[in-house]
Amino acid sequence: MSNPSAAAVPGRPRDPGVDERVAEAAVLLFGEVGWSGFSVEAVARRAGVGKASIYLRWPSKEALLAAALETRTANIEEIDTGSTRGDLVELTRQLLRLYLSDNGRATMRLTLDGDKVPEIRERY
Length: 124
What we know:
Tetracycline Repressor, domain 2; single chain
């Protein structure tokens, strides 16, 4: 006799790796082409998923990019070393780590295109 609480959910099971693949693809694509070349279709193609999988998780390309940047890019942490010189040295270290990371191009694009995307304009 089967367990009624273990009833199968209709449709294919969700792939737990989709969110990570899509976020990675979105950040890399944004870093390469900026907002003008960023599209859900291009992200889906790069991540190897269907557009429907993306739209099930994010309602728009703006929401997708904002979420991807949130999870895939680092932030500058608050600095208080006790000296101005120490603060500037630490800020420089953090900026270098940020811009030289795998997602550094997307971070640079935020400076150029961030004002064109309302969902990330407020955040960054």
